[in-house]
Amino acid sequence: MRGRSKVLKFRWDVVVIGGGPAGYTAAIRARQRGFNVLLVEKDELGGTCLNRGCIPSKALIHCAKVWQTVKNAGQFGVIAPEAHFDWSEMQRWANRVVSNLRRGLQSLLKHHGVTVEKGEAKIHGVNEVIVSSDDGEKVHTAKAVILAMGSSPAQIPCEPGASVLTEEQALFLPSLPKSIVVIGGGASGVELAWLFNALGVKVTLVEMLPQILPMMDAEVAEGLGQSFEKQGIDVQTSTKVNFVSARQGKTVVHTETVKIEADLVICAIGRKANSDGLSQLGINLNLDGSVAVNEWQQTTIPTVFAVGDLVHGSGTAHEGMMEGEWAVEAIARQFSGKPLPPAPKKLFIPVCTYTEPQALSVGLTEKEAKEKGLNVEIARFPWRANGAAMASALTEGFVKVIADAETKRVIGLHILGADAVNLNGEAALIVESEMTVDQAANIVRQHPSLSEGIKEALWALAGLPLHITKRPNRGRE
Amino acid sequence: MRGRSKVLKFRWDVVVIGGGPAGYTAAIRARQRGFNVLLVEKDELGGTCLNRGCIPSKALIHCAKVWQTVKNAGQFGVIAPEAHFDWSEMQRWANRVVSNLRRGLQSLLKHHGVTVEKGEAKIHGVNEVIVSSDDGEKVHTAKAVILAMGSSPAQIPCEPGASVLTEEQALFLPSLPKSIVVIGGGASGVELAWLFNALGVKVTLVEMLPQILPMMDAEVAEGLGQSFEKQGIDVQTSTKVNFVSARQGKTVVHTETVKIEADLVICAIGRKANSDGLSQLGINLNLDGSVAVNEWQQTTIPTVFAVGDLVHGSGTAHEGMMEGEWAVEAIARQFSGKPLPPAPKKLFIPVCTYTEPQALSVGLTEKEAKEKGLNVEIARFPWRANGAAMASALTEGFVKVIADAETKRVIGLHILGADAVNLNGEAALIVESEMTVDQAANIVRQHPSLSEGIKEALWALAGLPLHITKRPNRGRE
After folding, report:
1. Residue A78 sits in which domain range?
2. pTM of the full predicted structure?
3. pLDDT tens-digit profile of A366-389?
4. Which of A18, A104, A281, B367 has the fewest CB atoms within 10 Å distance of its CB?
């Protein structure tokens, strides 16, 4: 394998364990650096995100949005009197999307020259990986190893006979129950609550903390909660679940104050890193079981790196992909004998939910900014004053922009609204580039478009609102 | 009116003629500078854009997209067997959007303290505006006048009895004909062609130039044309129309080579500035009838400014709004006796079509870049490799990124795809900020989202494609 193999004492330059977004990104990037790369995956390529997470949930959410469009088509002059939906057909669509993407990933890895091996890999010693499969055991040697084994859904204590599914299993429900309790108001929890409610299931969403979406700006989270209530979801915040029991064919969620009965419970309380056995090898773990790494994703064994959910438990796919790139950068330096620079530039990670309305947070929330002691200026722009949103009757929500009062730089952009997710790149560019409010506002946006909502919020912050008369809710800060 | 009125020899600081986007933006900005402002509008507030252009067309296009969603809902598990649509209900929706926005604009102007007068305004002498209405004539004096009278659809020669509507009238058709010829493949023409084809009308689109959407990148225009053909629209480029005649209840379009018969012809060949009578006052016009202005929108009369379609005939609303801001900036300098700086920074104006797929161009097209003698690097990313596009089955089209080979700066971003319009802010930020390919690519985007398409095209240009194996169509440049 290439000329260099003659001088190598190891079979591979890099072995990557785990074929999810963080792992496959690392594998492709390592090939693009000219390394020979083995990727080991015990299950399907694509990891949680592609097989049991972001992708099938987005495909199902799309189906539910089509259903809502059909139900509400009347105001747009479209009449669909006999309309109904078929959950198993929706699942078929999601399966098709997943298998197409999986096939694509397979041929992508092949084209990039990544060798893929199916089997359960265990790191064994500093430069050795043992892969067990139906064909027996195989030992691979590598100059560097990237661990990308991901995470698994955390479980809640429950009695035998209770119908409790993980956030992953919920996507493959054979039929829709009448009622569901979703435990956990993070991104997965709110998306599942929205999905099943949109399909006519009676949904209760229970969150331990005072706010759903604790990682998002409080106003966006609160706005989504209010919208959920309007849509018929029972949202219970500050409600801790102790355990789940079974009673006469029903499942009962026991909180500290009440009991909630339902046909089915979905547990979406977070995820745990798949780090079993790593500490015995001298790889330090954090208290929550995730792998401890430095700024370059390096573990306590210098030639072993860790990326993705294995490092942060409940991270996003795009954060894992970025970490995959960093790990490869670090490995390339290591191979060429160069020391690592202090740290890569810390990038802002957009956080979204694909609910209706959608939620987006980039940069600091108002609370985070204030905790940092920053003097902030805030403005909002409601979608009901935006022509593009009005033309499609999707006027719920707002854009909220947070700037540093001294530097006038935009430090946070938070959106609740119909198509907020597709504005994530624009929001990230503004915050990441440390643009001032004026710089970001002056860019010309298409009229009418949702991008104008960001422009208008920035204008409002600059004291020059155009399509609103004042900063809405200005009294609140 | 304010303390300053005592020392003023003119009744108004600023009179704005015309209440479209360029005019009302100028009026509000002038108020925000502390000027007293009269806005004169002879018809409805909001101009062409709000009353007979962008807004009603986007509302109708939304209705047609709902209809298409209902028709194609089957693959997503939603069955609507008896679905049909009602064109007059669609128009009712568009009317509702328009009147809501108009009411909003009215109260906006009131809140900002802009005095609005209904009537036909004529500039008369350097500082005098005469307004004629049912109440007779009124003379207003002003320190500065902003002309924002907009444009009107250009007409094609046609015989009596031929059914020919302008692009504006087409939005208010009482019933749908069986067949339509749309003359003119600019933004309005392609949108009308898409709209009526989506509603089952047999549509022929005729464009004089070799490419529809001549202001857009050729590949995007060509891609949209191919998609139109697949959708059943007959696209005829390089076809010049000589005149339109009537024959036995049908209307006939006579091109240089063929005759095309249809129930109705829509003329969307461009617009003419509403500049009648201005040259007699000493205001210079360009050859096409638009008002000649300097970089600050100043006409040949130094206290008279012109903005919007009056200046560029067939401009966009957002360009007009930007010009409104510039004119006010210039007037503020003039009032305070300061000279005008050489020119405001020339900003990139996004251009979009709200068809399916949508088209977006920001910055230089490939042709423009080459005409400037730039050495360019180009990469593309097809939506069929994007998870968000796949989850919603909207995989037509691509992102095309053009960079300067020397500086590595992004100089053009062109997108054909389902939700391209909402990416306009992200595209404009990249091009306007003169970001390098690496800088723009490194920003973290949400996975899965359409923003990733831009990131992937940038990565491909940097030689680091992740979800594609090579630069697609690389052989073409």
Report:
1. 3-152+273-335
2. 0.96
3. 999 999 999 999 999 999 999 999
4. B367
